[in-house]
Structure formats: C-alpha cells, structure tokens
Amino acid sequence: MKRNYLNNLPLEEAKRLFFDHLKAVGFGAQTESVASADACGRVLQNAVYAKICSPHYNASAMDGVAVKASDTFGASEHSPLTLTRERYSVVDTGDPIPDGCDAVIMVEDLIEAGDGKLTILSAVHPWQNVRQVGEDICMGDMIAPSGTVLTPALCGALLAGGVTRVDVLKKPLVGIIPTGDEIVPPTDDPQKGEIIEFNSTVFSAMLRECGADAKTYPITPDKKDLIRSALETALAECDIVLISAGSSAGRDDYTSDVIASLGTVLVHGLAIKPGKPAVLGEACGKPVIGLPGYPVSAIVVMDEIVADVLSAASGHSNRTRRTRTAVLGQKVVSSLKYTEYIRVTLGMIGGRLLASALPRGAGVITSFTKADGILTVPQNCEGYEAGEEVEVRLLDGVDPSNTLIVTGSHDPLIDEVSDLLQKSGAPFRVRSTHVGSMGAIYAVRAGLAHMGGVHLLDGETGLYNDSYIEKYFPNGGAVLEKGVRRVQGLMVAKGNPLHVKDFRDVVRVRYVNRQRGAGTRILCDHLLAKHGMRAQEIDGYTNEEYTHTAVAALIAAGNADAGLGIYSAAKMYDLDFIPICDEEYDFLISAEYADDPMVRAFLAALRSDDCKERLTRMGGYGLEE
Amino acid sequence: MKRNYLNNLPLEEAKRLFFDHLKAVGFGAQTESVASADACGRVLQNAVYAKICSPHYNASAMDGVAVKASDTFGASEHSPLTLTRERYSVVDTGDPIPDGCDAVIMVEDLIEAGDGKLTILSAVHPWQNVRQVGEDICMGDMIAPSGTVLTPALCGALLAGGVTRVDVLKKPLVGIIPTGDEIVPPTDDPQKGEIIEFNSTVFSAMLRECGADAKTYPITPDKKDLIRSALETALAECDIVLISAGSSAGRDDYTSDVIASLGTVLVHGLAIKPGKPAVLGEACGKPVIGLPGYPVSAIVVMDEIVADVLSAASGHSNRTRRTRTAVLGQKVVSSLKYTEYIRVTLGMIGGRLLASALPRGAGVITSFTKADGILTVPQNCEGYEAGEEVEVRLLDGVDPSNTLIVTGSHDPLIDEVSDLLQKSGAPFRVRSTHVGSMGAIYAVRAGLAHMGGVHLLDGETGLYNDSYIEKYFPNGGAVLEKGVRRVQGLMVAKGNPLHVKDFRDVVRVRYVNRQRGAGTRILCDHLLAKHGMRAQEIDGYTNEEYTHTAVAALIAAGNADAGLGIYSAAKMYDLDFIPICDEEYDFLISAEYADDPMVRAFLAALRSDDCKERLTRMGGYGLEE
C-alpha cells in the first residue's frame, strides 16, 4: 500500500517558508478602480485629495435674506433698521449668495414692514450665516491616506470633494475545489457512505468575512488528473486556490502531488493540532493550499494560514484578534509534538472569566459552533492546570459577559429553555455543558457553573438528589430547585427484536453505557447491584456516551442493542422503550447565584406554559409541580 | 413667509413615542427561508434541530482495514496475529464500516504477510478508529436556538445535520428618497448652486453595515406632490423609508407635511445637536423618517434612531457599542437645550486615552471622517472641563492605541508623511490637528500630544522657534527637531488684479487672517508692528481660518483679496504669490517621546527621499538639511 509521510514543521517556520516564497514570486496586492459610492469597506491604494472645495460656492446656511453685511451695521433694538427690496435677496438654505452680498439674516430675525421692506433689530457681520467655500473640505487637502479602510462617512467626504472614483485594493478571489469520491452536495437524505460536503460553505463564509470573494468549483472525485484539471481552471480564474481534502498522505490523497505537478509544494504537514495534514504550495505565482478534510482541522488552517494569505493579497491586515485572560475550568494536557488549538466556551462567574475546553476531535464541527474562543497551547508546553490563568483569543462577535453557565446532566429541556429565553429577548445567553450529575456537583462546588441539572438516585433510600446535596455541601453553598419528573428506561430497537423485558436482559445483548458521573450511569450501577449483576458481564459496559440522544442514535444505527435513557430520546429515534423508573431531574444552584436574575429567568422559563407545552410534545416528562 | 416651528423633544421621549406607535401598528421582524449555505450572518427565527446524525453512518476515521475487534483480541508484540483476507476489508477515511466489522486498524500498524494476509502486533477494541453515528451531531439535537447569528461554522453544522434551508429574519429593505431642488448626483464639476448629493451614499453604506438592504430613489425636487408620489412608491416597495432633507420647518421643507398626508407624524424636532430637524413618522404601518439635509445631523439621527428602527425590524440588536473612558483635551461647552454629540479623535499618550473634540458644525462631514469616537453631552449638562474623564463611544473599527498625536501648525507635509508611513506598513496611525504653533507648545506642555509643527518667529532676533522653547520649557520637557524651510508670502488672485506689492498693501484690500496662536498669525502681527500698521485698519483681520488651503480657497473664491500663507497652497489654487520670508517649520517633540518609535519613524519618513520628492513637487520648500 502506498504510504507517504508528512512533515511536522512548526507553524512559524512553515509560514516563513511559504510567505518568503510567495513574496519571491511577486504575490501581493492588486488594485482596481471603483465608484466612490460603492467603495465602503474597501482599502485605499493611494492617498486621495479633494478635487473641489466643499462647499464649492458660498452657500446660505439658513433660510432668510442675503445682504451686504455693511448695510446692516448699526441696527439694534433701540435703532431698528429697514432694508428696502433692492438691498436684500431671498435665499433658502444651500442657495448661492448673490454677488455683492456677504451675509444672511435668518428668517426668524426679519420683521415685514410692508412694500417688501424688512426691518431688523441687529446687524450681521461679514460671512455670518454663510457656509464659505471650503468650510468643510478644501480642494487639494488629503481626504484620507493610503491604506485607509473606507467608512460610510469617508465615502461621503470623497463625493463631497468631487472624487467620484477611487483606486482600492482588489478583493482577492479565492477558488475552492472540494475533492473526494464519497462527498455529495448538501442534502437531508444522504445514503450510507455519502459524506455531505459542507466544508466549502464554511470556507466561503469565512473568506467573505475576511473581505475576499469566493468561488466554489464542482466536487471533484479522487482522481489525480481530474483534480489537476480543476486546479488549472481555478488558477486561471482566481487569485488564490484552496483544495479541500486529500491533503494528507493516504492512498487517495493527491493534493500534494497535483500542486507539485503544476508548481511547488513548500510544506506538507504542520506541527499543529488539529490541522496537521495541510499542504502549502504555489503555482502560477498564486498560493495553493491543501486543506484537511476534517472540518475542524480545516478551520484551524483557514484561521492560522489562509487569513494571512488574504492579508498579503489584500495588502492589509484583516485580523483584529481580541484576547482575554481567562481561568481554565479543567486541566488541559497537550503534546510537545505540536501547537494545539483548543476550542473553549467562556463565561463570567464570580468576577472571573472562565474558559471550559470543548471536545477536541477534528471531526467535531460542533466544537466550533459552541466555541467562544481558542486557547493556543504552544508546542513547548504540555498543557495547563485547572484554575491556571490563560490567554484566550475571542472568536468574532463573542461577548462572554452575561452568560448563564449550566453544567451538569444532559436533558434536551435545557436547550428548550434556552430557546424560550432567546425568544423572549433575554439579555443573556445560556452555555450548557453535559458532564453528568456528579459533574454538576463538582462545577457548582468549584465555582465553575451557576447551576446544573442533577438526577442522582440514592440507592439506600430510593430518593433523588437531596442526600447528595447534604453529603457534598455539608456547610451549604448550594440550593436545589425542583425541575421535572421524567421516565428512565431501556431503549431498544423498534419492535424489540431481542425481546428485552427488563434490565436483567442486558447481559445477553450489546449494551451502550453513559459516562462515569452521569446520573443515568449511577442508575445503571444501582440496577446492576440490585439485580446482583457484575459490570464485566455486560458487553459494552465500557462503551460510554455523553447524551441520551447519542445512546439512542447508536441503538438506532445498530451499533448497540440496548441502553438506558429518557423516553423523549427513544421517541425521537423511533425506538422501543421499556420504562424502568420515574426520576426527579432537578437543578442544583450555587447559593451565591440563587437570586441571580439569569438563574431566576431560567427557572421562570422552565416553569412557563410554553415550556410545559414543549415537554408534553417531547413526551416522558411529569410536570405536576 | 411661511414658518412652522419645530418641537424640541428629548430623544428618549421622542423614541418612546415613535417606537410605541410602531409597535401598536404591528411593525416588526419578518421571516424568510434561505439556503443554509447562504445564511452566514443571518439571524435564526426559530431553534434549528438536526434532521440526521453526523456522521449518519459508521465511518472509518483512518485509512486502514476494517475488522471485527474480537478477531484481534490477544495480538501483541510477543504474539503477533495474522488476519486472512476474509477477516478484513480495506477502508479509506470516511468509508462505511462493512457489516460485521466494528473497528479499524490503521495502515501504519499493518505488516503485509503475503497472500493478502496481514499481521498485527496489537489488538483494537470495539469502535476503535471508527467515527460512530452521531459522533458530532445527533438527530434531534438543537443545533442553535432562535436569535442566533449564524457563523461560518454554524452554517457547516446545519448542513452536517441535514438542514439545507433555515428560516431567518428578513433583512429590512430601506428606501432612501433624496430631495432638493439644488442637489445633483456625484460629479467632479458641479455648477454654482448645485449641491452634490452624497448623503444617500452615506446612508446606504451605514444601512448595509447594520445588515439591511438599501434602495436609493432618484433625486426628487422640492415639490410636495412629487415627494408624496416618491414616498408612495417607496412605501410600496420597502420596509422602512428615509426622506433625505426637507425635514426642517423652512419654506421648501415638505417632509413633515408629506408624511402627515399619508400617515402620522409623531415627532418633528428633537432636542439633540446636531440632528434637531428630524421627522419621525409612520405610513402604511412602516416607519418613515425625515433626515436633516446636513450630513452630520443626518448621521447622528441614523446612529441614534434609524439603527434602533433596524433592530426592531430585524428582531435583534445590531449595535455592539463599545465605550471607553477618556481624558478630555480641552474644555467642551454645551447648551442645556439639547443633548449634544461631539465627534472626538482619540489617542493614547502617557498611559491615558485622550479625547480631542473636532469641529462641531453640522455641515462638516470631515468631523466624522476624522472621528474615532462620539462624546455625548446630556441635555442636563453644560459641558466638561479640560482634563475631565468622560465616557466616549468608539466608532466601528477604531483602535485608539498606536496613534501618533501631532498637534500644532498646519502644513500639508504632515499628511504626506502620514501617507508615506501608511504605505510602508507602519504599525501606527497619525492623528494631526491644526491648532497653530502656539497650540503645539500648549499641547506638548500639557501632555496632550507627542509632537507638533511650529514656525514661531521671534520678532526681536528674527530667528525661529528656539527662543519660544526656552521661554515655555525653561526646565526642559521638549526638544526641537529640524523640519523644513518654507516660503511664506501673500496669496492674491491670479494676475494680482489689485496690484498688491508687499504687506503694506493689505490695508487697501479685503484680508483673510489665520487664527490666534498660528505661526502665520504671529508673522502677520509681526509685519503689522514692523510697518507701524494697526489691526483695526485691516478689513478682514478678524476673519480667521485654520489652514493655508482654507485661506487660499477663500481668495480663489473671491471672498477675500489677500492672505498670508505658504507657496504650496497658492500653487494648488493657481494664485499669485508675493514671497515675504523664508521660515523654519520644525517639530516640537515632548522630551518623554523623543525616542519613541512612532516619533522616530515619523521623522525618518519626513527625511526620506520619497518625502523630498513630494515636497519638491508641491513647491516652496527648502530641504537642505
């Protein structure tokens, strides 16, 4: 089997190699002329000077009459002065001042005296109430220097100064070539083995946010000659080309070979994670970048390299990177083999900005959709301890203040409450993380969350939650707010083909479990003990998932035969459901935040009629209280 | 003469009236369905749930072979295990896992053993190297709640979850009707009395920045029936209508009447400055806003009211207003009659953020193009003292750090140096203010500027600058860096029709002066004293302008006959020039910043060959040093 090997070049070294080469082949900003009226947001190539004055004639600043100021000298309340018809001209705001006049008397200051005569009670001085030539802009003055990003007001000033067209830096056009035998255009009904091609959508949107134009070419199969021909077309039409997927060194990875056949491959393999299998090359004097197929890897390469290529192409930096100091919520371990980019959520709690790491898999696009920031762990660093202060780069548009941090057991109702709050215009957002019921206790105790969902069965009493609070908060520090009752049970395939009747039957099927610390895992262990069963007997006991829907999805897919979960998840996946118990899903709240307006609003939304209606529709919830 | 009167309604009261009415007539957000691939930046109307899992089948996470994990149990370096051809299937990354298999062995871990057999040195556990169904997204999970602004990654997640279309809030379409008998489309050669219509360009660009679409209608003359008919058209086509100009209560101001004839005028006249003559109305259930004709007034109304109308129309706030605490560089006086919006420049100096007020005229668009922020002086406040701390709203995209503050005498060379610095990619910007040479001394002494241009003639010695430094910085604190020599003289109309021969002739013409504190004003006063002339003799002595080009523009326009200024300004306006003296235009630099990299870069650019070439082209500069 064919096997190439990737380099593991540190990012800065790779970029130096790449950008030095691009500079050497003359890659850089180009210029185009656009109408000033359409130039907002564009970058001036050269300094712009006013061609005319603004105003370009002496204009009345008021509605009134134009006069020669010296004709009015001496007028006062004690000695009013009357102007005959030939000593004034009626002018509106913006009208030119007639020859021989040099001032305007406001209409408010005029007293009609019959026969077209006007009486005034005060004099005007020369050029009073007149916008003299050049009051705003003088011909020849520099309106803006080169490199200026044009604002709406600047576009107005250009036109005021008679500058109807300007030379601006050309927006780079970036071609995107999606490759892969298995990828298909977006659909809601893909067949097995078909991968939905959404990376090009992500890239286009990112490129447009950076001020570039994007053109996506048709999906090209993993055939070297087809990819080569697509690259030739894109090189002829675009300023920069991105080849999506096929950038690694596997059997069907041709990106590097194709770039080499038309130009030069400078780097193949970066010491970053995610993003390692990237290709940095050049052909026809244009940058050609091979992006990894995994979306998260590709986004990191877009962020760390393509953004800089756009800056070079557009002649100015598109990046205003905001960083904030945050406290890490958990220990983060990273390898010395690479620089790692870890997606984090952010929220303010106890006056500190708290960063919590999201899942680190390269295929998990949701780790970017939920992310508020990026924590970079340098190559020479093995990671950080929980509680350590770290610098986090904020993602665009993120405002981490006003975040309600809900950390604990998973239930879809948290998302529903969050949506209800958004719909009602709540001035905060909800960031929820699924770490299980014990995770809620840990997070609230450590000051890492405002609240969290818990459903913790006390095997001795058969009661929920209270005894855990007493045990873990012996001196107070947390309160429990009643949530919902919900039905837990075994989810099995539709029609229950393996005839699972109760929990004891899981010994003879493939089980899928929840993670340690989850309330549902505690229930599982309680049931094992109750029935005198041992974990080792269960095929799949170590198969851990983090949510009810993840367990349901695996059973629906046939990866497992049974798993514990809530009714609403079974219903969603059209699974059979064997009820086992009714449990109390409550909210553990940090005592410090028990009266916090965000917490109160969350609970109010939970208890609203809208929420009840949604839970009824989802099924399996008891809402007596 | 017709005369209506404007109200003077406080802004908050006016907005309450206006928005309560809009709510009552049902004005609000509308929804449209768009392709998820085109939805970046749009706002979700409803929560979106995944329609399919991602991945939606069990996919190989690696290039390698798919196996049944249990077939590999027991393999180790000490007891290698060989798989026959029927026990594995070759899979690439992304390929479906064949039925009966539940794990993948990476190609790196395979040893070919002939006859299609493969040897392995370690076992794999079930689901190892497999992306199980739902690893990223589970069907039924909420991808994002309502109100979410879609990011590139979220668009990707929507497609990954099989959501190909989404309901988003409709972008409001805003119609703009420019009105006025005197206005003409942008041109570089307007006739006297023609005003270039650039406000609609400013509005369109502002609206687009807020996420709205804009449609500009043809210029409509000041005729009530024509404006009414234009408004009817715009109301039929748009969600919001802006009528530009005619919003006051003058002779030709019809906006208010026209809105009243088709709907309701809620407010006419706001207690804000600039922006007073605004009209807030409604017709056909849509907001109709009459914007003042003066650009600065209109921009303030756009910022303070139209932005909120867009928020109401789009269902979410478009405004992320950033504020900063700054120290005021000079006293600011405001009236108790209105809330005032003062444009300021910002820069860091001595660890403080310094705000300097820009010209306050409503017609001065350049006060917005130069502005970094807005200082709001509430109606109940008479202003602020110099040195007082104030809250300033940052304009979009402004980063006030890394600003070189150059405050002092005007010379176009400062703009040229600033442009050269921009072209060379300097990591800072230059903010220059023209307050005259004495202003430079004041600003550097008070810690309000890094440096400033000075050309101060000592009448007793005939020498420039040094004696002033000794006088105003007796204990040090400033250094003088040599700048340029330049020719000062009298500018007169082309052909010198009034036969001005030397400075003594200004007694018999209309003079235009520079402001107090300007080096050129000091030269003027020195010449008066030298020739035994008195200021009162000079017609126009109190006529003050702030720049050489402003003086030249007024002479070229015939508003004055003569004024002192530098040769380059006379040349720019094709004026005759009577040389009077050669002066030294130097830079006064705060001693604290004498070695500052920004200051050094400025001086290096000033002394560069590029700069010499530019100054030679402008004319009138001596560059021996």
Describe this structure in words.
- The structure is a homodimer of 625-residue chains.
- Chain A is α+β, with helices and mostly antiparallel strands and 625 residues long.
- Chain A has five domains: 11-28 and 172-314, MoaB/Mog-like domain (Molybdenum Cofactor Biosythetic Enzyme, Chain A, 3-Layer(aba) Sandwich), CATH 3.40.980.10; 31-54 and 136-169, Molybdopterin biosynthesis moea protein, domain 2 (Alpha-Beta Complex), CATH 3.90.105; 59-131, Beta Complex (Molybdopterin biosynthesis moeA protein, domain 3); 322-398, Beta-clip (Beta Barrel), CATH 2.40.340.10; 421-622, D-Maltodextrin-Binding Protein, domain 2, CATH 3.40.190.290.
- Chain A contains 16 helices and 37 strands.
- In chain A, the strands form twelve sheets. A six-stranded mixed beta sheet of chain A has the order 16-13-17-21-20-18, with helices on both faces. A five-stranded mixed barrel of chain A has the order 22-25-24-26-28. In chain A, strands 31, 32, 35, 36 and 37 form a five-stranded antiparallel beta sheet that branches.
- In chain A, helix 5 (224-237) packs across helix 6 and helix 9 packs across helix 15 (597-606).
- The longest helix of chain A is centred in the middle third of the chain and has 20 residues, at 295-314.
- The two termini of chain A are 64 Å apart.
- The mean pLDDT of chain A is 94.
Brief synopsis:
With 625 residues, chain A is an alpha+beta fold.
Write the layout of secondary structure elements.
Two copies of one chain form a homodimer.
Chain A: H1 11-24, E1 31-35, E2 48-49, E3 59-60, E4 64-67, H2 69-72, E5 81-83, E6 89-91, E7 103-106, E8 111-112, E9 118-120, E10 130-131, E11 142-144, H3 152-160, E12 165-169, E13 173-178, E14 183-184, E15 195-196, H4 199-209, E16 213-216, H5 224-237, E17 240-244, H6 255-262, E18 264-268, E19 272-273, E20 279-283, E21 286-291, H7 295-314, E22 322-328, E23 332-333, E24 339-349, E25 352-357, H8 366-369, E26 373-377, E27 383-384, E28 389-394, E29 403-408, H9 412-423, E30 429-434, H10 436-445, E31 451-454, H11 466-472, E32 478-492, E33 513-514, H12 519-530, E34 544-545, H13 548-557, E35 562-566, H14 567-572, E36 576-590, H15 597-606, H16 609-618, E37 621-622
Parallel strand pairs in A: 13-16, 13-17, 14-15, 17-21, 19-24, 22-25, 29-30, 33-34
Antiparallel strand pairs in A: 1-12, 2-11, 3-10, 4-6, 4-7, 5-9, 8-9, 18-20, 20-21, 22-28, 23-27, 24-25, 24-26, 26-28, 31-36, 32-35, 32-36, 32-37
Helix pairs in contact in A: 4-7, 5-6, 9-15, 9-16
